[in-house]
Amino acid sequence: MPLTNSLKITPLTTHIGGLVEGVDLSQPQPDERVADIRAALLDRKVLFFEDQNITPRQHIDFAARFGALHTHPLYPSIPDIPEMIVLDNHKDNPTDNDAWHTDVTFIETPPLGSILHAQQLPPVGGDTLWSSMTEAYKALSPTMQSFLSGLQGVHDFTRSFPQDRLVAQNAGRDKYEEARAKHPPVLHPVIRTHPETGEPCLFVNYGYTTRIKGMRGAESKALLDFLFAHIQKPEFIVRWRWSPKSLAFWDNRCTQHYAVNDYMPHRRVMHRATILGDKPFFRAAA
Ligand code: SIN
C-alpha cells in the first residue's frame, strides 16, 4: 500500500478514491496531518475513512480546518450547529440526491469540499458514486476541450429546489422564498481551472446547470445533455459502500456525486459539513 506523506492510502480506482487508514478524526489533528490530508484529497479527489466515532461537533471542527463552512439555505441541520446538514431519508422523505450534482454550485463561491458521515444505514444499498471531472475533461477531444473553454454555464438554485420539491416544502414557504430571493442564477466557467492543482475540470452538473450562456435553447440543451451523459462513464467513477460511521471527504471543485436511491422503505441518515471554496475561474494552459 502506498504511503502519501504520513498517511496510509489505498487507491480504490485508477483515477479517483482513496481509503485512508490509521487516522482517528475524534482526536485533534496536527497541522502537518491536515496538510497531508489536503494533499491526499488533491491526489485522490475523494477520501474515505472507516469507523470514525465522532460527534457532530468533532465533524464540524475537522471540516473547519479546511476553510469556512457553508450553511445550507433549505436542508435541516443539527440543533445549535446550523452548518451541519442532516440528510434523513425514508419512505416519507425520499432522497433528492439521486441525480448527478456538485454541491451548492448555485452560489458565487461554490464549496471546496464536503464531508459526509454515515449515521444510520439501510441493511443494504444507499451507496454513493463520485465521478472525476478532471478525467471527464481529459477524455474529451482537444477540439471539444477548446470549444468548451470559452463558455459559461448558468447555475440555478431552483433547478434542484423547485417550490414543489419535498425539501422546499419541508423548509416552509417563508424560508423557501427567502432562499430563492437570496440565490439568483450565477455564471461559472464550463471548464474551471482547479485553484490548487491547476488542472482543467469540467464544471457543469445536472443538479444546477440549466443552460449555456449565449447559446440558443436547443443548442444549450444538446450540449448539456451530452456532457451530463459523458460524466457518467464508469472509467471516471468510484462507488462507495457505506459502513456504520464511515466518512467521505470529497473535492467538490473537480467531482460530481450521486446518492443511489435503492433502499426504500428503509432509513438512511447522513450528516454533511460543507466547506466554502473560491470563485471558479478558467486559465488557459501556458
Ligand atoms: C450529497 O449529495 O451531498 C449527499 C450524498 C449522499 O447522501 O450519499
Structural summary, described in words:
By secondary structure, the protein is of the alpha+beta class. It has one domain: Clavaminate synthase-like (Double-stranded beta-helix, 4-Layer Sandwich), CATH 3.60.130. The protein is 24% helix and 28% strand. It is built from eight helices and 17 strands. The chain has helices spanning 31-44, 56-64, 133-138, 142-148, 157-160, 166-171, 173-182, 217-230; strands spanning 3-4, 7-11, 18-21, 46-49, 77-78, 81-89, 113-120, 128-132, 152-155, 186-189, 191-193, 200-202, 209-212, 237-240, 247-251, 255-259, 268-275. A nine-stranded mixed β-sheet has the order 1-2-3-4-15-7-17-6-5. The chain has a three-stranded antiparallel β-sheet with strand order 14-8-16. The protein has a three-stranded antiparallel β-sheet with strand order 10-9-13. A hairpin with a 2-residue loop joins strand 5 and strand 6 (81-89). The protein is globular. The mean pLDDT is 95. The protein binds succinic acid. Succinic acid binds at residues 87, 97, 103, 114, 116, 128, 257, 259, 270, 272.
**The level-1 CATH class:** Alpha Beta
Query: Using only CA atoms, what is the Rg?
Result: 18 Å
Q: In the CATH hierarchy, what is the superfamily?
A: Clavaminate synthase-like
The rounded distance between the terminal residues' Cα atoms is 35 Å
Provide the CATH topology.
Double-stranded beta-helix
Helix content: 10-25%
Q: What class would the helix/strand composition place it in? A: alpha+beta
Q: Give the averaged pLDDT, no decimals.
A: 95
Strand content: 25-35%
* Largest sheet geometry: 9 strands, mixed
Bound molecules: succinic acid
Strand order in the largest sheet: 1-2-3-4-15-7-17-6-5
Tally of helical runs? 8
Q: How are helices and strands ordered from N to C?
A: EEEHEHEEEEHHEHHHEEEEHEEEE
Contiguous uncertain segments of 5+ residues:
none
Number of domains: 1
Shape: globular
By DSSP, the count of extended strands is 17
